[in-house]
Structures are given as C-alpha cells and as structure tokens.
Design goal:
The protein has a single domain, classed as TIM Barrel, CATH 3.20.20. The chain is built from 9 helices and 9 strands. The protein has a 9-stranded mixed beta sheet. The chain is globular and about 45 Å long.
Amino acid sequence: MLDQFNRKINYLRISVTDRCNLRCRYCMPADGIKWIDHSRILSFEEIIEVVEEAVSLGVDKIRLTGGEPLVRKGIVDLVKMIAEVPGIKDLGMTTNGQLLERYAVALAEAGLNRVNVSLDTTEAKTYKYLSRGGDISNVFKGLEAARRAGLDPIKINAVINSESGESAKKQLREFCEENNYKLRFIRQMSLEDGSFYPVEGGEGGICKICNRIRLTANGDVKPCLFSEDGFNVREFGARNAILNAVGAKPLSGKKNKVNKFYNIGG
C-alpha cells in the first residue's frame, strides 16, 4: 500500500483506550480529562475488522497504545485476536509499565512480540513528580517480567525537554546499557504548535520515511499524528477509512488542534 508520495504504508498504531492510570505532566492536565463515552469506543470485533482490512492492504506491523493499553478490560484477549490474524509479522505495545508485571506472561503467551516502556528518569522522586504519583518500582518490576516472558527487544521511551539535564540522560543511558534495553529519546512535542522532531534512537518523526497510519480509540483512522484529518470506520467502513487516510497522508506533518496525545496514541 503506497501513499501519494510513494511511501510504503505497512504500520498501524491502534489506540485501544483514552484512559490512563497516570497523569504525566506533558500529557494530561492535573485534574484529568473528559473520557470518551464507552459507546464510542471501538469493540474488539470492530478493531479486528480494521486489522484484517489493513493487513489485506499490506499492513504487517501493529502497535497497541492508549492512553494506557493495559487498563483496557480484556486486553490480553485482544492481543490474542490480533496475533491470530494471518500476515502480521510484528505485534508490539507501548505501555507506562505500571501494570506490566501483572500481564507480561499472559501477553507473551497471547502473541505479543515486544514492548516499549515509557520511562523518563531512573529516580523514584522525579518519576513520581513527572507522572503525578506513579511508582517507579512498578516499572522496574514490569521490565524484569517482560524480559523473563521473552518480550524482546525491550525499548525505553524517554521524553525529554529543555529542562532535561545531561545527568538524567546519562543515567538513562547507563541503565539501558546495563540491562540491554534499547533507549529512545523523544523530544517533547506539541500537536497544536506543530513542533515535532526525529526520535533519537528510532525512526519516528522523520516524515520522508513515515510508514504509519493510526486508529484512535473511537474509530478515526488518521493519516498522521500532526494532521486534523480522520476517517471514522463506523461512518466510512474499515477499508474505505484506511484508504482515505492513506490518500490524505501529507508529505510532512502540520498542526493538530483536534486531538491530544492521550487520545491519539502518541
């Protein structure tokens, strides 16, 4: 499946929920958000229909995101359903790690291949501040559980900004080197301002090689993180929504004042 700029689109990111068990300062307001009504959230069957159509069009890589995907009830069942779709070569998940220890083995047995874990610091006090109450020990235990379960490679996503000191980055590098985790620094972005940057240690943020489309929890297939376009699968049908999103995929991201990071899957 090629877009109008001859980029091969083979990667679908699926936000399974807008809900999260943390309130990270760069992602959510302190007092939380107004959740999407449950009636507007795609069912597992609707998600699988999108996945099947996407695979038939050439998608072979899936990543589950949120919000926090592990707070979605029945998430292991969804992973199993997706893993059983013929043609998927890579099934991953991005998680904050708070519940990963509980689910790692079941996720691996269901067919999840690997995880990206959000971790912006290795210091408990700083982590609690940045996440507004999160327990970093849960992340560490989740990472170990993921390793034992064979969810490999394990990648660490660290959001950095102008206040992120070199010492903090150095600590993260040393932590990842000691534990054989792959580290990616993601510079803090702004959807509304249209400010985005290449991911250090990854391929995100490089528009000329972008190979992804996104499915939001309420069913919009979006061509780009920094695009206000979206084609809802309940309105257009799964196949047409995907094709319309690919057709609308811009050469480069612009601005997005419609969505927030917590409801578009990051």
